[in-house]
């Protein structure tokens, strides 16, 4: 896969995660894809699994948006750094809504096959998120 192809796919992926579009999920995510999420013993699977990940984040931060800051690709592998921004308007990991804004980084590693996502290892900065909503010390 060329760098241009990787860039186009990632731009569509960012549109997908910011919109939670079911049609983009079906287009971009392989039915057999596995998504390794911190704190979960088993990976999520397929388009529905990824939509569940987005729904979990949106349950606490309904206005959450991801900005792709950096990306490196090598064939069918992509490493990406995102900034997540949102407002804590719902319960998140047991913490009731505070109305506080959050901004945190995430580093994700993706594997693609035939232009579709087949695997992700996601590492959002959960400590930063929890600190910003008052559930962990700031320092």
Account of the protein in words:
With 139 residues, the chain is α+β, with helices and mostly antiparallel strands. The protein contains 4 helices and 6 strands, in the order ααββαββββα. The chain has helices at residues 3-19, 22-28, 46-60, 126-132, and strands at 29-36, 44-45, 65-74, 77-87, 101-113, 116-124. It has a 6-stranded mixed β-sheet. Strand 3 and strand 4 form a beta hairpin. Helix 2 packs across helix 3. The protein is globular and about 45 Å long. The model has no long low-confidence stretch (mean pLDDT 95).
Through-space gap between termini: 42 Å
The topology string of helices and strands comes to HHEEHEEEEH
Overall pLDDT, averaged? 95
- What proportion strand? 35-45%
Structural class: alpha+beta
Low-confidence stretches: none
């Amino acid at each position: 896969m060329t760098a241009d192809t990787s860039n186009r796919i990632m731009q569509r992926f960012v549109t997908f995660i910011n919109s939670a579009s079911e049609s983009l999920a079906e287009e971009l995510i392989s039915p057999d894809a596995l998504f390794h999420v911190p704190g979960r013993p088993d990976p999520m699977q397929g388009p529905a699994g990824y939509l569940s990940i987005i729904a979990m984040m949106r349950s606490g931060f309904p206005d959450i948006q991801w900005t792709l800051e950096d990306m490196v690709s090598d064939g069918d592998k992509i490493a990406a750094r995102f900034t997540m921004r949102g407002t804590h308007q719902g319960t998140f990991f047991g913490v009731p809504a505070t109305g506080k804004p959050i901004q945190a980084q995430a580093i994700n590693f993706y594997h693609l096959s035939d232009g579709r996502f087949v695997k992700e290892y996601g590492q959002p900065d959960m400590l930063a998120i929890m600190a910003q909503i008052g559930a962990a010390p700031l320092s």
